[in-house]
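Changelog note: in this version the structure field was regenerated for every chain. One regenerated record is shown below for reference.
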Amino acid sequence: MRRSSTKKTGQPASTASLTSSASDPFRSASSKASSKELERIDQLFYTYSDGSSGLIDPEGIEALCSDMEVDHTDVRILMLAWKMRAERQGYFTLDEWRRGLKSLRADTVSKLKKALPELEKEVRRPSNFVDFHAYSFRYCLTEEKQKSIDIESICELLDLVLGSLYRAQVDYFVEYLKTQTDYKVVNMDQWMGFLRFCNEISFPDFGNYNPELAWPLILDNFVEWMREKQG
């Protein structure tokens, strides 16, 4: 009876062992492939990083853009920084680089270039775009404790981030910002207000704009300026 019992209890262990050994090669192969991919991602990083700082700096980013045949001022480079969650403008750390390229499944320049159109589609989704819009402002805060951005830089950022989606609004925003004298800088609340304005307000008639609602004062002034222009 003991032998029979041992046989029965041993059988599942034997089956489990067979199952385990059968699945291990797949697990092992997947792990090896992932490891190789990470190696190639790291090698690509060191191709563009500065040896002394251990970072990809502005010069390295320009070299990467050149190899991808993409202008370094292309909004997709900002989208790439967003995907990496890069903290410092013009610099990528190894961890940031790994995070972005692993997510994009890109371990060569060619694959990274091919991933850009899909990345753009991902960013353009409404659920992601609000986050990207906020990120683009934070990314431009280059000084410690800085909370606002000068008008000239904001005009460039508006054109880069919102220009392709809201061309008419952005052109008038920029014209207003460059001619007004009340504001020398723009803060995050005002920056996010621009996007909400473009999303919600009919343009150029402003039929549904209500200054009594919680809009930043700069947008009240902008609407007033536009209505004066329209006569």
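Spot check on this record: The chain has two domains: 32-124, 131-230. The longest helix spans residues 2-48.
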